[in-house]
Amino acid sequence: MTLAPLTRRAPPPLAAGARVALVAPAGPLRGPDELDRAVANARALGWEPVASAHALARTGYFAGADEARASDLNEALRDPRIDGVWCLRGGYGAMRVLDRIDWSALRGHPKPILGYSDVTALHGAIARQAGIVSYHAPTARTTLSAFSRASLTRAVSRGEDSCGVAERARVLRPGRARGRLEGGNLAVFAALVGTPYLPPLEGAILVLEDINEAVYRIDRMLAQLRLAGALHGVRAIVFGQCTNCPEEADDGARTLDAVLLELADWLRVPCLAGVPIGHVAEQWTLPLGRMAELECDERRVAVV
Amino acid sequence: MTLAPLTRRAPPPLAAGARVALVAPAGPLRGPDELDRAVANARALGWEPVASAHALARTGYFAGADEARASDLNEALRDPRIDGVWCLRGGYGAMRVLDRIDWSALRGHPKPILGYSDVTALHGAIARQAGIVSYHAPTARTTLSAFSRASLTRAVSRGEDSCGVAERARVLRPGRARGRLEGGNLAVFAALVGTPYLPPLEGAILVLEDINEAVYRIDRMLAQLRLAGALHGVRAIVFGQCTNCPEEADDGARTLDAVLLELADWLRVPCLAGVPIGHVAEQWTLPLGRMAELECDERRVAVV
Predict the structure, then answer these.
(1) With a threshold of 0.90, does the pTM exceed it?
(2) Radius of gyration of chain A measured on its C-alpha atoms
(3) Which residues in chain B touch residue A211, judged by CB atoms under 8 angstroms apart?
(4) Nearest Cβ partner of B227 from A98, A190, A227?
(5) Looking at beta carbons, which residues of chain B come within 8 Å of A91?
(6) What are phi and psi of B9, to 5 degrees?
(7) For residue A176, how many other CB atoms are within 10 A of its CB?
(8) ipTM metric
């Protein structure tokens, strides 16, 4: 028996003139230049940026204390004049504030929330606690490539298919699948296991990426998801880029692709690796929670 | 209301002449020399070592395939002529075989099982699935210091207090506590969250150590434990060594000690850091599951 896919409400697209809060829920900006770039990025997309109170704060490796970061995010969610939230950067720290966020505000007034990497924690919580589509997208401080800007615009401003064909992707296990887009940064995603912030994966196309992780660590994260029973009902595995993920020569067959294929074989689902998602200049924006189709042979992902 | 501590059965001590299986549940040995050293270590403790079938196997970063490693461990647990199991090394891979282990064999015939680092996954599963005391101890391939050998002997061969006073330990939050010893390598421990292999921590003195982790990663692992509700009822935090855990100068107050103190403050429990546990030459052997007392002011841990 196949369960019906879990549906999520999509927030309204961010049209021209939309007021977008620039919030730093995790790591700090390096300086005002990065905030300036975020402001320019938002304006170039036709939006009116609104920098949050602690956008330039720094406390250790956080953009301000937990209270400050949670407060900025809650302000943006509660303010009826704010139409969307674009996270300034990842780093680490979003998961620390998940139990301080006003999810009922987001449920009552769904808004597009954008970011990736550490923002994966926020996406998981949004899925689980608010039932809203959110956007795995470059952070606001990024120097946006034309490729990334085009995909982001299609996804967030128009609600159109923001993926496509990834010519250089690797078909690890052929096949096709249809399911909800879920996932994000694997290390952060795995760190949500056991908490009330891991999105349900029944009926999902699970999309993952990572940076600075040895293959055995990727293996361990996937093992946690498997042993926790979190992968039940996953319909496909799509991996983006693993940036600076060393494969040791003497580890023989335990390459990243071998580890991914092993998981896909165990799940008996198709697997495509190397799509433009992750810590790279050319990124697809993914509407997490929306339905998509994977056609491995064509190396295609389509939001439907 | 304080719940009664969860008690675990202690296996019989390993007396002179005990037959001890040398098993590699995770990473491979570098070569036969390491197995020779493990054999010599066991004999120096008065035991009769029995190398498992795949003790020298290598498959990528594993000591043989999952089937082989699980088979070696199950052989040792099921064989009535084997009195104990000393893991040859850590690395990564024990958690991958936890769902293949014959826990009923261990419940039926409790045996001391020794190791640390990646073997933390085995300890967690032993606690949860078999209810047996197991030993956080140097791996068999280690060049044993006199300090480590003395503590190991007290714990495993005599069932005596194997801890003591750690002169150089840092009192992060004063106080005293009494509880079951639980824990191990933090990265591996956090990777058990959400699985059926995380030991219950109600009434525990939680002892942790790690290697090669930036402070923000330690922070993330502790956040996962906290958000998963796994820390409810923890009575004290004891941290061993964090070997090669860089603290970035510009991260200000987010040092390892600050992160540990923050957690101890949140739990309102005593916290002692820097005890001889971890990836260092001088290690206490910890009988996980046995009761212990922590006296922060005296920098003392005592198995009682």
Answers:
(1) yes
(2) 18
(3) none
(4) A98
(5) 216
(6) -75, 135
(7) 14
(8) 0.95
